[in-house]
Amino acid sequence: MRRPIGLAVVVVVTIAAAPAQRSAAEDTQGNVAASELFLRAFAVFSHPRCSNCHPRDDQPRQGTSMRHVHAMNVQRGREKTVGDGAGGYGRPGMECRTCHEASNGTLPGSPPGALNWRLAPKEMGWDGLTASELCTHFNDLAARGVPVMDHIVKPDDKANAEWKIDPLVKWAWEPGLDRDFPPVSLPEFTDLLRGWKKAGSGCPPK
User: Fold this and answer.
1) What is the overall mean pLDDT for the chain?
2) In this structure, is residue 161 part of a structural domain?
């Protein structure tokens, strides 16, 4: 009698690799919800490097982990209301540029600096707002014709030679010394905002 031939059964298990995190540029080419894109951008808007100069009152903030009202009772003061560089430049005798020059100081404890250092315009104050509140506020401003993102993202009707990112926006990623910078890179941040607008400017739920 012939003995049965044993058959070895080989089970091949395919392990799917975890998908790599998609970049903002890839997301904007797909169908990612606008609200998700805004949530990712909100990590920058809410970071102290950004929000310290976007108060909803007349006083800037200082610090990151231990934030506080700017020392020396600094106030909004004189405000430019239209065009590039809109915002509060400080009171007479205590203007922002008195200490904040066009570039960062290099000595320990010296003030940071960028061209046209100032507080954001009052209508662009958002410190303390939630992602949903800020998104809604941006859409309300845009509906009134306020160019909310033009200082961050190049408008479609502007040639490259005619437009430059606001130096204060760029400074957040070049703060000097050992200062923290936002958790999202500047190129990814601008990609997120372009994608948010392209996807309909939808907002996260409350």
Assistant:
1) 87
2) yes
